[in-house]
Amino acid sequence: MFKKRAINKRLQPKSSLENGPQTEELAEPHNTSNLPLKSDDLTPMIHEKFNNTSDLKVKKYINLTIYYIENQINQQELNQNIIGKIKQADEITTETVYASIAINEVEDTDDLSYAILRMIKGSVALFIEGTPKIILASIPVKESRALSRPENESQVTGPQLGFNESLATNVSVIRRYLSTPDLCNEFFVFGTRTNTAVSLLYIKGIASEDLVNRVKHKLNQIEVDALIDSSVLNQHLDDHSWSIFPQMLLTERPDRVSDGLLNGKIALFVDGSTNVILCPFTFIEFFESREDYNIRWPIATFIRLLRIVAMFLSIFFTSIYVAALTFHYEIIPQALLVPLGESRSRVPFPPLFEAVLLEFIIELLREAGARLPTKVGQTMGIVGGIVIGTAAVQAGFTSNILLIIVALSALASFTAPSYTMGNVIRIIRFPILFMAGFLGFYGVMFGFCLLLIHLIRLSSLGAPYLSPFYPPRFQDWVDSVIRLPMKYTNKRPTLTRPADVQKYDPDKVN
Amino acid sequence: MKSFLILPVLIILLLVTGCAKKNILEETGLITTVGFDMASSESILTTMVVLQIDPEAKRNVDILSSSADTSKGSRIDANLKTPKELQAGQLRVALYNEKIARKGLRYFADTMARDPSVSDLIYIGIVEGSAHDTLNHDYKNIPDIGRYLYNQFEQLTEQEQILNPTLQDVQQSLYSVGMDPIIPLVKRKGETIANTGSAILRNDKMVGKLSPYKSFFVKLIRDDFRAGNIELHLDLKNADGKNEKVVTVLDTIKTSSDLKLTDPKIPHIDAKLKITARLLEIRGKIDLTNPKNIKLLEKKIGQKLEQDTLKVIRYCQEKNSDVFGFGEVYRSSVRHSNLTMKEWHEKYKNLEAHVSVDFSLVRTGVTE
């Protein structure tokens, strides 16, 4: 199933997944392993390892003992393909077991801890009297749901396929997109308690070896007891864990992962997680969508610019309103003066308080909307819309111009194709808002400068976060904020230091 | 380690500088227009148009006036009469009474320019009559006199019917050697306010007036037109040899002027004007389908423009006001001239100007 296998050293399994009887070891009569020769001795050992769990089943058949955890394995497969086949054999030895059972994934081990681990993951352990080996046949219950649409990263054009919670399925989806033997899959296990499977994918010949080694090094350094979701692994891998900005992309779109891999990025799949980590990643790439390549370049450029404008709008628009109304009435255009003044004249609060209040209400609505079940969520939207939209203005609580501005910047924050980046944009608005309220435009600029300094200092797996703007890499500009026709975007971005820079010959492409 | 140092610095930076003065919009009395008159030989009568942003107020603006010896002093005095603190940051138009203009505008221009909250792009106008009366009059159809004036100035500047009348322009010509300011004239006519031409200044003192028609020729030399328009009266001989009065209206006038100092002693200035325009309207019997007539028309218009330009130059010379900026040409052509405004005004009286117009019509419209 996997091309290559590198089990984390903490687990130290002695056998690999490669199938086939290992006769050399069997031929040795003397018991060198820590396994007993009799099932009567083994059974209490396994029971003890499992802390006498009640779903551990032990079945005996002549000289064969079968151990499995009831709900982890496929009962039908056990009966048909293992027990049913073994019964047809004349005698039961390791060879006949290997020969008769009709399961793809069979291995044997003399390491009990490894066997226990495999049993948790859905293997059946077979023990033959007199042989200090455990044969493991993997027949896990396939409880994963079918592949469905990506809920959080929807696109109008392009494939409507999202990852699900199964690592194997997710990797196979990527294999379908990238049918090349160069796609390397390296296997890791994380969490001393959870033993979560993690796959590291990259394309050999494109991804820089240096980068791959860096990720592997980082992965090997991490020692945690549990790993539930890829977003947690993402935070473990971040260069700057104090930063508010996400330094790696979490995506549920296979096309986006494939695209990243083709650009020399590295993907990390975590079993049980619908999101795949793509790294290294830059700030501007969070505002790019895979869809930009599916539509014609002028439209794609327009949409990308729109997202950038929306980002600035979302961060600074409310702040500018507050600063202008509190300190710099001079800059308000003459035509806006009367409408602005009239809408403000009934509001009893200073502009800063008014803006913070409204932003807070919008955040409340958003958070409530994310937590509520879908059916109630719609009602919530209507209630929020009416309560905030109409009643707050009529009650003289807020001015309607601010309402438009706040709604606009909330809307703008949702244009970021990455949900994590959208969250960040919404949050960094608040400190800048306070700075605007206390120091005016000086504060806004101060906040902007701090933000910029921070962004310049950031890195993602050692790659500069603000690339291609700082350090300036002009050849990457053709596919960042703008997107030029394919003829001009024939080079892979320098960010990942790809081994193969040229994507295709520009003369052979329109 | 570094971050331990940065944090206190940031906090100090924030706290120490955190004492900017708040001017919350609705708590501020926004002066949009201001007018100055002479109250007596010393004191100034200042009229301020203050924007009312209360939706329940009957009038959109509040007119305050006060007498003081300085313009800022009058603001302090007027502040006694208002519930909101008066601020000049939204000032858009400043009007000066003719009497003040004749006494000198330098002080007023300076005090405006020195106030950082006042934009350099406010419009300056000189009022024929009283500024107080112009602003304080209860116009039937003008709810907000400040906005009306501002829009009018903006519109006329865009249409190139008046010369750039901003504070910056006035300051520039006040302080540059070899150029005198020209400021639009404004007059209340019944229930409207009209632009009545331009006031020409010698240094900072108003010395004469030009009608809107004559102001056109000042701009012709001083600036370039990009899309101006004008109505010209011509005397033509038609095919029958009869004299005929023809009125033409030109629009999208594009000009470029080339001024050369040909003789620094007299001084003699050669002005070459290249003008193209579209014939928008023509009144009189003339056959436009005949290309000869168009050539004739072009020639006549060119002559007319030449004559009238010279007339305006002569008038300004009489008043000794160099609104055309000939002094700038002199200064840039003569090395080490160390020209002062006083010297130039002496020379300017004797200046000889030669104007040649190269006029062509780009379009005459559909004619049958």
Automatic annotation (TrEMBL), chain A:
Transmembrane segments: 305-327, 401-420, 432-456
Presence of the UniProt keyword Transmembrane helix in the record: yes
The keyword Membrane is annotated on this UniProt entry: yes
Start and end residues of each stretch annotated as Disordered: 1-40
Biased composition annotated in UniProt, kind: Polar residues: 13-22
Alphabetical keyword list: Membrane, Transmembrane, Transmembrane helix
Pfam families noted in UniProt: GerA
Basic residues bias (residue ranges): 1-12
Protein family per UniProt: Belongs to the GerABKA family.
Protein name: Spore germination protein
Organism: Fictibacillus barbaricus
From TrEMBL, chain B:
Membrane topology: Lipid-anchor
UniProt name for this protein: Ger(X)C family spore germination protein
Subcellular location: Membrane
The keyword Cytoplasm is annotated on this UniProt entry: no
Keywords carried by this UniProt record: Germination, Lipoprotein, Membrane, Palmitate, Signal
Domain Spore germination protein N-terminal: 22-187
Keyword Repeat: no
Pfam families per the UniProt record, alphabetical: Spore_GerAC, Spore_GerAC_N
InterPro entries xrefs: GerAC_N, Spore_GerAC-like, Spore_GerAC-like_C, Spore_GerAC_C_sf
Lineage of origin: Bacteria, Bacillati, Bacillota, Bacilli, Bacillales
Family label: Belongs to the GerABKC lipoprotein family.
Organism: Fictibacillus barbaricus
Residue ranges annotated for the Spore germination GerAC-like C-terminal domain, each copy included: 196-365
Domain of life assignment: Bacteria
PANTHER family (UniProt xref): SPORE GERMINATION PROTEIN B3
